[in-house]
Design brief:
The longest helix is centred in the middle third of the chain and has 29 residues, at 252-280. Strands 1-2 form a two-stranded antiparallel ribbon. It is mostly helical. The chain has one domain (3-446). The chain is globular, with a radius of gyration of 23 Å. The protein has helices at residues 3-22, 41-51, 63-67, 74-80, 102-115, 121-147, 153-173, 178-201, 206-224, 228-231, 237-246, 252-280, 305-316, 330-333, 339-344, 347-356, 358-378, 388-407, 413-434, 442-446; strands at residues 89-91, 94-96.
Length: 449
């Protein structure tokens, strides 16, 4: 297939995948704006910014809530009969949104400023999911071109489609607010990795590489203002930086270029810290400590060995406690994510990885568990949607593993059949999950109680 036709085919495949992921997002009344509840915080925050204040103006705060010694204790709120806005940050008598603010500046505020109307939150989620899926396709094709040139083009697209849907399936059913934060983080981070990979592996021109790295830093920095756990994937930049320096002679001029490329991290990081300080008097406080929700996390989450084990089991396996498909862990729901194990026990594949990108591969395998550790330590409850934080990075590790495993084989016919079957199963499972009733999604509306 000629290059032009390949590009067209890739665009069509990505577009179809995007449509499958985003078209169902407007179906459930609890998530499409018909019954907004507390899920319109991005819209309210955009309005607040345009009015010149950071807090969310809901009118008079219930005196019973103000009188509480610890308003973050749900039992104390219930006992006092205090009324309050669910799942908001509450500090010094004012309400704030504790979700990352970057989506407000990227979509909600410009839309409100131009049209005078609110951008419904699920639409923002659809936009971010589409940007993420396009980025995943672009990154997989870039990796194929650099590391797996003889890997099937069709299989690359198939894996990109399957792993995209596996990454965003929860957002297809329950898109507003929570998944807006997560998909925005995914969108920023996948394009950050794309540009960093392009800087290190797709050009020999140093100035072009620095430009690409600058874009990578920009998207990587923005991801921290969307969903901090997802942004931890920025650690992949470190082994790529080592690879970049191996090819070039270090100099003060090159150091200056590095500083220029890294500037977005400092600028955006500084702005985010200023935003935190302006609201909570702490540059590192995003507001999670002050949330009014099902548990008191104002003093952090109490971590015990038992709690950590339960978290790891819940997010990765959950074989014993799952009562429906949606509750199974990542590896059970999507077996395709276990592909790195097959590669790790393949000496020929590991020899290729050792020679070409061992440090990146190692960090790629560790990163999902780093994200998982932050998710476990940051919340006293385990929720299926938090798996979105790391599905995508497991998917990236699975694709890289599949590519190197394929390179280790002389005859790939049977291998492609197995990979194809895993990809098809992945898509079918993602669709099946959409029809599992949970979290007031569309399935819970249309299926009998």
């Amino acid at each position: 297939m000629k290059a032009g036709m390949q590009k067209l085919t890739a665009v069509i495949a990505a577009a179809l995948t995007i449509l499958i992921a985003v078209l169902p997002m407007g179906l459930a009344p609890a998530w499409n704006g018909e019954k907004p509840g507390h899920r319109n915080q991005y819209e309210v925050t955009a309005r607040a910014f345009l009015e010149g204040h950071l807090d969310l103006d809901y009118g008079e705060v219930d005196p019973k809530l103000l009188a509480l010694e610890n308003p973050y204790d749900p039992e104390a709120r219930k006992k006092a009969g205090a009324s309050y806005h669910w799942d908001h940050a509450f500090y010094n008598g004012k309400y704030y949104m504790y979700f990352g603010v970057v989506p407000v500046f990227l979509l909600f505020l410009p839309f409100r400023a131009v049209t005078g109307a609110d951008l419904t939150t699920f639409i923002a989620t659809a936009v971010f999911a589409a940007v993420f899926i396009a980025g995943l396709f672009a990154l997989f094709l870039l990796l194929r071109k650099r590391f797996f040139k003889d890997f099937s083009f069709g299989m690359t697209l198939g894996l990109a489609a399957a792993l995209s849907l596996a990454s965003v399936w929860y957002a297809s059913s329950a898109p507003a607010l929570y998944c807006t934060a997560i998909t925005s983080g995914l969108a920023m981070e996948i394009w950050s990795l794309f540009f960093f990979f392009k800087a290190v592996y797709a050009t020999e021109n140093e100035n072009k590489a620095i430009l690409y790295a600058g874009f990578g830093a920009l998207f990587g920095a923005l991801s921290f203002g969307c969903r901090p756990p997802v942004a931890l994937a920025n650690v992949l930049v470190l082994p790529m930086l080592v690879d970049f320096l191996r090819k070039r002679k270090f100099s003060l001029k090159l150091l200056g270029k590095f500083c220029l490329a890294a500037l977005p991290y400092f600028l955006i990081g500084g702005l985010l810290m200023y935003y935190n300080y302006a609201r909570f008097g702490n540059v590192l406080e995003f507001g999670q400590s002050y949330q009014l929700t099902i548990a008191d996390v104002s003093k952090g989450v109490k971590l015990t060995t038992s709690f950590i084990k339960k978290g790891l089991d819940y997010y990765l396996l959950n074989l014993k406690n799952a009562k429906s498909l949606v509750q199974f862990g990542a590896f059970v729901t999507f077996p395709i994510l276990l592909l790195p194990i097959a590669t790790l026990v393949n000496p020929r594949a590991m020899k290729l990885i050792w020679k070409e990108c061992f440090a990146i591969f190692l960090v790629l395998l560790v990163t999902p568990f780093l994200i998982l550790a932050v998710d476990i330590s940051g919340s006293p409850v385990f929720l299926p949607r938090y798996r979105m934080d790391f599905y995508w990075i497991f998917g990236l590790a699975a694709f890289v593993s599949a590519g190197f495993f394929g390179r280790s084989l002389k005859n790939r016919a049977v291998y492609y059949v197995v990979l194809g079957a895993l990809a098809v199963a992945c898509v079918c499972l993602a669709v099946a999950l959409f029809f599992c009733p949970y979290d007031a999604n569309y399935a819970s509306v249309i299926l009998p109680k």
